[in-house]
Write a structure and sequence with these properties.
Largest sheet of chain A: none
Shape of chain A: globular
Number of strands of chain B: 5
Number of strands of chain A: 0
Order of helices and strands of chain B: HHHHHHHHHHHEHEHEEHEHH
Oligomer: heterodimer
Largest interface: A-B, 126 and 140 residues
Distance between the termini of chain A: 31 Å
Number of helices of chain A: 9
Distance between the termini of chain B: 32 Å
């Protein structure tokens, strides 16, 4: 395994984009669907809530649908896909010498601030992904390749939101 | 049509799930190697000094888009039905609002949901926490759903695509998108150079991006994408060998339908599109009463069972009406229109059939048997027994087709 010499040695972004596009294309051609992530997060959440309060899940129309006909919320293509993504990320990181227990943050941030903002950002994205029927992987990437109007509108809005707030978060990242 | 492989969704679902892991592996691996397991690189996009997010995202979109367009022109995949099945409706305002909020979450948290998984897999705790946040966020949404369901479902424009609203063929739109992306890539390079200097960033990477982002690599990527786009346009000239496959419908006669109902009712799904009262008072055994206005809400494109769909219309309804064509688009199985609609069925099933006589051929006798079985099923009455035979050819005698059992 490569040592920790070049933790910042990444692929050429254009080639990486083409590679990602080929994976996405394969998914369309083989499975008739694109990639995704937030849908799996939703199912994991339902599974966790179900383990402590199953009747509550049954009472919620949007959550109960995942248990319809005795199905298990985790028995879903997307869940298996992000499991694969986790493996792929791990193998990629390890083989590039980037596997390390750490907290990535900007030079002027602190660990606490970073983690608090991470969870806040995650919550916002969870809410947003539900509303948009997908996140950057499912909606922007997959829907965008299909030239869906909603996906392109979503994608521009994502960049809009990021750039809108960037100035006020300079201390976290620069 | 070769792609996609529908069996991976139905009969061979386990193989489909294995494929999910493999595709996911490729997804996660590429994201990691692009550097998206690290929040600082992702956030850099919004400070212009590292536009990798933009390059990878648009590179991927353009690549997949061109691949689909080229395959579609070659007749190997049907672009619109694949797209209808693989994408959600356009809920325009929710998606714009959701996108903006996701962007906020992105710059605050440093990851998007997919990259947070890759980050967590690399050992980055901030990624793990971000993903936990995504889980919590999706759960909160479920809890508040009753209050926002109206907004959630608002502005549903259905499945609409850029080539539809621009009234241009898909390969041409793909070409224009590619051209725009390549132009933006050049712009991104300039922005990066300007802001790297402005923010004094060049020292943050121990392997300078200039070594990775070489002109040769760039040229290769741009040439590949550019020529694929041109290829797509060239293929426009090819006669499309497949008929507009959204319209893979045929007709089914009343007799054929009756045979299916008697022998394998599970292999079909009968939708009666007439007015609800008409359907309620008199319908085909096993038919669902789905007036034409409700057809869209059935979300047929999500039905992966691939059973044959039989649509029953009355005389005033048009097979090629917009409500029907849009509702059945993307349906994975065959769509069959009942020949002569419900009127034809009434004549077939509700008049008692007459026995063709003992010297009729086996086929005519079989048809009679099917028809009288259906008649029995539908009216609950028995017809007169066939005329007494002078000899006893095989196949005559009382019609006792076992059809009264499992209807619907």
């Amino acid at each position: 395994m490569k040592s920790d010499q070049h933790p910042e040695r990444f692929w050429n972004p254009y080639l990486a984009g083409i590679a990602l596009g080929l994976v996405l294309l394969a998914s369309f051609l083989i499975m008739g669907r694109g990639l995704g992530a937030s849908g799996a997060a939703n199912r994991i959440g339902v599974t966790l809530v179900n383990s402590v309060a199953p009747q509550h899940v049954d009472e919620s129309p949007v959550m109960a649908v995942m248990k319809e006909d005795g199905a298990h919320p985790l028995d879903d293509w997307l869940v298996f896909e992000i499991f694969g993504a986790f493996l792929g990320g791990a193998v990629g990181a390890y083989s590039a010498g980037r596997m390390k227990l750490q907290i990535i943050k900007g030079p002027r941030s602190t660990n606490t601030k970073r983690l608090l903002l991470a969870i806040l950002g995650g919550i916002l994205m969870g809410l947003a992904a539900r509303l948009s029927r997908g996140c950057t992987s499912g909606q922007a990437l997959s829907g965008g390749a299909l030239l869906s109007v909603g996906s392109w509108a979503f994608m521009f809005s994502v960049f809009g939101g990021g750039y809108a707030l960037a100035y006020w978060l300079k201390k976290e990242w620069l | 049509m070769i792609f996609p492989f529908d069996s991976l969704v139905s009969e061979h679902r386990e193989a489909g799930l294995l494929m999910a892991v493999l595709l996911g592996f490729g997804f996660g691996f590429v994201l990691e190697r692009a550097g998206f397991g690290r929040a600082t690189k992702l956030a850099a996009q919004f400070y212009f000094y590292d536009m990798t997010v933009f390059k990878v995202m648009f590179g991927a979109i353009v690549t997949a888009m061109l691949g689909l367009v080229i395959f579609s022109q070659l007749g190997w995949v049907e672009l619109k039905s694949l797209a209808d099945a693989a994408s959600s409706s356009t809920f325009l305002i929710p998606m714009v609002v959701g996108g903006f909020v996701l962007g906020l979450g992105f710059i605050i948290g440093g990851y998007c949901p997919g990259t947070s998984i890759v980050a967590a897999a690399s050992g980055n705790l901030d990624g793990l926490i971000a993903f936990a946040g995504v889980i919590v966020g999706t759960w909160i949404y479920s809890e508040i759903y009753p209050w926002i369901s109206h907004f959630h479902n608002s502005n549903d424009l259905g499945h609409i695509y850029l080539y539809e609203i621009l009234h241009l063929p898909a390969p041409l739109v793909a070409f224009l998108v590619t051209a725009m992306a390549l132009g933006c890539f050049f712009g991104a390079e300039k922005l990066e150079a300007v802001f790297k200097k402005k923010l004094n960033i060049s020292s943050s990477y121990d392997v300078p991006m200039e070594k990775i982002n070489t002109p040769q690599n760039r040229k290769f990527a741009f040439t590949l994408l550019g020529s694929s786009a041109v290829l797509g346009i060239i293929l426009l000239a090819l006669p499309k060998t497949t008929v507009d496959a959204n319209w893979k419908t045929q007709e089914i006669s009343s007799e054929q339908l009756a045979m299916k109902i008697l022998e394998k009712p599970w292999s079909i799904r009968i939708l009666d599109l007439r007015k609800k009262e008409s359907c309620a008072s008199q319908r085909i055994p096993g038919a669902e009463c789905t007036p034409i206005e409700t057809l869209k809400a059935l979300n047929l494109f999500e039905d992966t069972s691939r059973v044959d769909l039989v649509l029953v219309l009355d005389e005033s309804q048009e097979q090629r009406s917009k409500s029907i064509t849009t509702a059945i688009r993307g349906y994975a199985g065959k769509v069959l229109f009942l020949n002569n609609g419900f009127e034809g069925w009434k004549q077939y099933a509700l008049q008692p059939p007459t026995h063709p006589g003992t010297f009729a051929d086996a086929h005519a006798i079989a048809s009679y048997q099917v028809r009288s079985a259906i008649h029995t099923m539908v009216t609950g009455s028995k017809q007169a027994p066939p005329p007494a035979p002078r000899t006893i050819p095989a196949g005559s005698g009382e019609s006792r087709k076992k059809g009264s059992g499992c209807s619907s």
